[in-house]
Amino acid sequence: MNEKCVAAVTINQDYCSRCSICHSVCPYEAITRDAETGKVEINIQKCQVCGICYSACPVFAIEMVYYDYNTLVDYVDCVRKKAKSDTLVLMCRGNSPSTCEVEEILAEQGLSVKDYVPLRLPCSGRVPTEFIFKVLKSGIKNVVSVQCEDAFCRFKEGTKINTRRLLLSKNVLEQLGFSKDAVKVVKYSRKVIYETEKCVGCDKCVFICPYAAIEAEPFATPKILYDYCMGCGACQLVCPHHAIQVKGFEFENVLKRYEESAKKLKAEGKAPVILVFSCQWSEFKALDDPESELFKKRNAIVLEVPCFKALDPVHVVNALQNGFDGVMAVVCSAEDCKLQEGRDTAERNMAVLKDALRKTGWQERFMLFEASPRCVGDFNQKLDEFWKQITALPPLKLVNVEA
Questions:
Q1: Which of 67, 91, 197, 379 gives a 20 to 30 Å CA spacing to 127?
Q2: For 70-187, CATH number?
Q3: Answer CATH for 195-246 from 3.30.230.10, 3.30.70.20, 3.40.50.300, 3.10.620.30
Q4: Res 333 pLDDT > 60
């Protein structure tokens, strides 16, 4: 973390009541408490910006840059009026990629929801009880919380905390005359999808999986142990026939998305054109607002990956061959990684990629940047630096040209 880091989470000591609730709920021990005075402070170097402390503070003494209470309420109210929907679907970032598969997830749980107000958050644990009451009062009739399964929460305790809050909320709401179904909790964790008919039994996925979620089978295709699968995507990178992939991040779908985007930007005469791959947890605002002016001004397209381990070097090279003048990868640092097991695999992949780019003379067209949402503005600054770097280079000629 640089010295100029503007902290995304702070405590207003004038408002703090020294109740120490934030200290007790922080899953990363990032909030310290003075035993004598009771004063609590945030160690920003340990903070993961999950927002659990913010949602737990009874006097709103904790201030956050991302997804603050008032902004969330205003967003829901605005979208509700435009969409004319009375259903709010809260989605954890980990179980809801930007490819919008919410309807499928709910359908698997026996729920049919077509018109709804979507609200995507880094963690379900950051939703304060007051927010639920406020949106129900504003006109929302149903709240569906799509939470990661307890063992797969990227912020350790987020799912458990929010589940308890919602259960308490439901009890209060029923006493106030609301329907017992006004608040629903859906447990869902994103995992791999496995097409055994494509599998050739090479067992590469067995050896690469850092969570022992794939077992080799004698004289048969490997077996996926879904109770252990974390959806990191390491197996997807080594599968030669794309038989195993993370749902929502399938190779061909990602390929199609950025190739079509490159063609569109090039057809409009935009230059230079930049592709950004961003880990879901390394940057917040960019992934939730991919159409922002930040990207439009720099002719940049942003696509998310579930983890650094799922960043496929093939996509980087292919993007440079198909119209992009530069590719930027934004990932968590080793200390911040939410899926630390197997990170060495990702680092080896990047070493091989950089060597390949050096041989083709494209090394200046790729940047790997370790980011954290705890430092406000770091991502914007780095993207601007990269854009200037690519602008100084001559445009790339298309290598893959359709006949």
A1: 379
A2: 3.40.50
A3: 3.30.70.20
A4: yes
